[in-house]
Amino acid sequence: DRDTDKKRIEELLEENMVLEIAQKQSMNESAHLGWELEQLSKSTDLADTRKSFVFELNECASSRILKLEKDNQSLQNTIQELRDASLTSRESSLKFVELEKENQQLSKKIEKLQNQIEQEKQSNQDLETLSEELIKEKEQLQVVMETLKADKDRQVQ
């Protein structure tokens, strides 16, 4: 039973490590998306709107990631407590079932976060496309305005 418990603890630790790696990747993607949005916002007149969007996006992602990190730390503490306490196999089994459920919930949360990040990436791409279109339209309008101004000046002369 102890060997089984030890193996199960090792499996849970491995799962936690995988979740931590996924979480860090998610954080890196969020940071990169934030950076991309900031770069994009510098190139247009819509900077204030985008900055608030970037800020909200980063805040939302950061809060989710912090919550996941807290959950993960809690699971690690529980595993350490199990090791230290050397609970009976029955109690250990029950605790492991609980930990497994928590791990599954954490995995689902991470998956949801990754899906949201993908959606946010698509939204960012859409915003970038819209921004480029607006810049092109602005340039065209400036050309038309300059032409009209030149025509007006000729008429005045």
UniProtKB/TrEMBL annotation:
Q: Does the keyword Coiled coil apply?
A: yes
Q: Look up the record and report any one GO term of the cellular component aspect.
A: centrosome
- Biological process annotations from GO: cytoplasmic microtubule organization; cytoskeleton-dependent intracellular transport
Per the database entry, which stretches of residues form a coiled coil?
58-151
Q: Which GO terms describe its molecular function?
A: dynein light intermediate chain binding; microtubule binding
Q: Which UniProt keywords apply?
A: Coiled coil
The name of this protein is DAPLE protein
Species: Alectura lathami (Australian brush turkey)
